[in-house]
Every structure is written in C-alpha cells, then in structure tokens.
Target: Cytochrome c domain-containing protein
Amino acid sequence: MPRFPSRRALVRGIARAAAALALVLAALLVVVQLRWQRTFDVPLPALHARTDSATIARGRYLAYGPAHCASCHVAPSDRARLRAGGQPPLVGGTEFRPPVGRWYAANLTPDSATGIGRWSDGQIARVLRGGVRHDGRVLFPAMEYQELADDDIVALLSFLRAQPPVRHAVPPRRVNVIGRAMLAFGFAPRSPAAPPPRTAPRGSDAAAGAYLANVVAGCDGCHTKRDLRTGKYVGPPYGGGTVFRERDAQGRPIVSPRLAPGTGPMATWTEAQFVARIRAGRAHPHSPMEWEAFQKMPEEDLRAIYRYLRSL
Ligand code: HEC
Ligand code: HEC
Model:
C-alpha cells in the first residue's frame, strides 16, 4: 500500500516551503531596497556656461522652442500661459504618473535650495547627455537629448544660469516596489547613440533638418511607432501610427500621422505648405504634440525639417 504523508506532515511541509519563499522574497526586497537608488559612474562633460547674450538667446530659443524643455518644466498652473505664447519661468512641478510611481519635472531656475543653483555645469550637462540625474541616479526616461551638439548644451546651460532664481520646491519622486525593482535591476542610463557633434548643423539642408527633428525636437519619438512600455522603435522611421491616450473631438484616440513620403500629408505637401501647416499650429486641443514650441521656429529650420523628411 502506498504511504501518504499524514495530514500533519503535509501542513508542516507547506509551512516550511512558505517560510522559505518568504525568506527569498524578503532577501529580494532587501536587495531592491539597497540597489534602487544606485548611482552610475557617468563622466561629467567638460562643457561650461557662457555669459554672452547671443549664446543665452540661443539657449532660450531652444528651451521654449524646438527642444521644448518648457513644456514639462513650467509650473502646471502656467501651462495655459505657455500655450498662449508666453514664456513662464521653468520652476518645475509637472507630474508624471507611470504605473510604477510619480515623477516631477525639476525646477530649472538657479535657486540654490530648490533649483539647479548648487549643481555644477558638468552635472547639468550630464543630465542631458548622460541620462543620469545630478546625483548620478538614473533619470526618469522623459528626456532624449543625448546627441545634442556641444554648443547647444552650452547654450542651454548659459540660458538656465541666466534666469532669475525662483524658490519653488518640487516633490521628490515616489516609486512603488515594482518601480524600485525596475530601477534596481532594469534601467540603465541612456548614452549617446553616436558621438555628438561639437557644433549644431545649421542651414536649411536635410542634415540640419535631421539634427533638429531627431535630436533637438524629438519628432521621431512620436512619429515612429514604438513600444510604449519599453520605448523601443518597432515601426519604420517616421511611419507614424503611435496611438496616444489623448482623444480628439469625436472621442477617438489621437494617432500620429506618417511623415515619411509615400502616404499621409507629406505625400502631397510642398515645402511652403509644410511650413504654413506648422505655423498654423494646434488643430486638436488635446494633441500631445507641442505645436506651440514648434510653430515659431524660423522658416530656415522648418524648411530643413521638410527636406529631411522628404529625403527619407
Ligand atoms: C517630456 C518632459 C520633459 C522635457 C521635454 C524635458 N524634461 Fe527635464 N525633466 C523631466 C522630468 C520628469 C524630470 C525629473 C526626472 C527624475 O527625477 O528622474 C526632469 C529633470 C530635469 C533635470 C534635473 C535632473 C536632476 O538632476 O534631478 C534637468 C537639469 C532637466 N530636466 C533639464 C531639461 C532640459 C534642459 C530640457 C530641454 C532641453 C528638459 N529638461 C526637457 C521632464 C522633461
Ligand atoms: C509628443 C508627440 C509628438 C511630437 C514630439 C511631434 N509630433 Fe507631430 N504629431 C503628433 C500627433 C499625435 C499628431 C496628430 C494630431 C495633431 O495633428 O496634432 C501630429 C501631427 C503632425 C503633423 C500633421 C498635421 C496635420 O495637419 O495633418 C505634422 C506635419 C507633424 N505632426 C510634424 C511634426 C514635426 C515636424 C515634429 C518635430 C518638430 C513633430 N511633429 C513632433 C505627435 C507628435
């Protein structure tokens, strides 16, 4: 006759297994707790702020224009003012709520207690280029500026330093246990995909357009289909088709159009029509595209983007 374990032995076995599992989980939690705030050893770029007005003006143009730092770094209460064409201060506070926690865009004014006042130029430059925060911890993946040219990073630094400081505390990030596990084991800082240029390409040719569209403005990030969880590109370049949470007037999800030639608006638009369309600005009140930041770009820059898109 087969021997079955007695009921008591069975209960004891299950209890032992559960205790072992709890121990493993507890150990894992301890490791996550020790590792989620880990820092990365990313070198500080040797880039420094300047004080001449032309450099500062270029930085302001990038921040409120094509690089659209303002769209995340103005106070939420100032969004309407920004949309109306104003330039409210970059005091931070916009909340990001992925399922794993809450992140807040930083105060970028030179206030020493709540802003960038005590960080070195290298620390700020490294946020943009190296994908880590001033303290070396991994940055929430909202900023894809790793390939910005040296002179554009210098321009941004120079402008940020030249602003009046505003004391405005932004809440620290709050990360739940799954987010901590991801930070402990998953995320690595972004680094430049190719060595960044020393000076930004300028002019109205396709090379300048590629830099503006892919590096400064991030048009590719929305107009190329990507896996919204991992951020990996899964569609052809500028093939469109990203479905956003935001809805249009009919309640349908807003989808980014294809901007490569072939089908979609770029199949028929002339250069002048493209420039006029960007200039005309927002058509959908809830579109995630920062029309207000892009619509005032100089004609030369818009022509460059058109030529780049047509060259795809
Ligand atoms: C899509 C939204 C978004 C845009 C656009 C954006 N940022 Fe940020 N930024 C954030 C968020 C969110 C954080 C907080 C990240 C964190 O704590 O991990 C942040 C943090 C920062 C920090 C501080 C990092 C630290 O050390 O704590 C700096 C500096 C910064 N951004 C600069 C910029 C500049 C300059 C631009 C434009 C070139 C820009 N950001 C554009 C969302 C954005
Ligand atoms: C945050 C995501 C996002 C970014 C960044 C973005 N777009 Fe868009 N874009 C969209 C979405 C969504 C639509 C469709 C809704 C709309 O028209 O606003 C769109 C629409 C367009 C259209 C078609 C408008 C029409 O009338 O058919 C053009 C042209 C365009 N974008 C060009 C650009 C260019 C150029 C850039 C970079 C300078 C850019 N977009 C950056 C999301 C984005």
Summary: The chain has two domains: 53-175, 206-310.
